[in-house]
Write a structure and sequence with these properties.
There is one protein chain. The chain has about 210 residues and is α+β, with helices and mostly antiparallel strands. The chain has a domain at about 65-180: Alpha-Beta Plaits (2-Layer Sandwich). Helices cover about 50% and strands about 15% of the residues. The longest helix is centred in the C-terminal third of the chain and has 26 residues, at about 190-214.
């Protein structure tokens, strides 16, 4: 096998390994999986109405990745929270939450896509009661989840118990809802594929040029 063939095969193997890890090939959640997640949430003391709402989300799984859109209004004067130092800022409390969240996300091929501060208050509000209260947001974030199965593995993880209190204290209000993408140009499988293709093609061209010189 020539060096050039080894180069292309190596790139293909790297890409295939990433796609296998980054994609949930297990399909939609089974009824038994949903039942287990619901039982776990109930054992952890989740509100019955919230549990039922999440169960409906899980029952309608299509086995696809999704993005969680988060609108955030940071609390300038958060209360003290057990497990944190008195007087900690919202940023400090949120960091406490995320320091436990990030490892759970990354090891399951889930990750932040966008973080940013609001450039202005909401420019368009339609059909929402108490609209003035809904106009003010300070930050926004988008997170990618490999699947609803992955999402629940994180949410129902016993290690996350009590950590959510840091997030709640750091916020005045928040709205988070999932979307399944039709167009997602930031998909890491697309980006990595383009990067590997470019690097491999350049390396292959360099090897071919050296062969012709010799």
């Amino acid at each position: 096998m020539t060096t050039r063939k080894k180069l292309w095969i190596s790139s293909l193997l790297i890409y295939a390994t990433f796609v296998f890890w980054y994609t949930d090939f297990s399909g939609p959640l089974s009824d038994s999986e949903v039942d287990q997640f619901v039982a776990t949430l109930t054992e952890q003391g989740s509100d019955p109405q919230t549990t039922a709402y999440i169960e409906n989300f899980l029952r309608n799984d299509r086995g696809r990745q999704f993005l969680m859109l988060n609108a955030l209004d940071i609390n300038d004067n958060p209360p003290d929270v057990q497990g944190a130092e008195p007087g900690e800022s919202a940023d400090q409390l949120m960091n406490r939450y995320m320091e436990h969240m990030y490892p759970e996300l990354f090891k399951r091929a889930s990750h932040p896509v966008i973080f940013g501060q609001a450039a202005y208050s909401a420019l368009d509000i339609v059909g929402i009661k108490n609209a003035p209260d809904m106009r003010v947001w300070t930050d926004g974030a988008i997170f990618r989840y490999r699947s609803r199965r992955t999402f629940m593995e994180i949410v129902a993880n016993p290690d996350m118990l009590g950590r959510h209190e840091f997030k709640l204290a750091a916020l005045n209000k928040t709205i988070a809802y999932p979307i399944e993408t039709r167009i997602y140009l930031g998909d890491m499988r697309l980006l990595l594929g383009l990067i590997l293709l470019s690097i491999t093609a350049l390396a292959d061209s360099f090897m071919l040029a050296r062969q012709r010189q010799h």
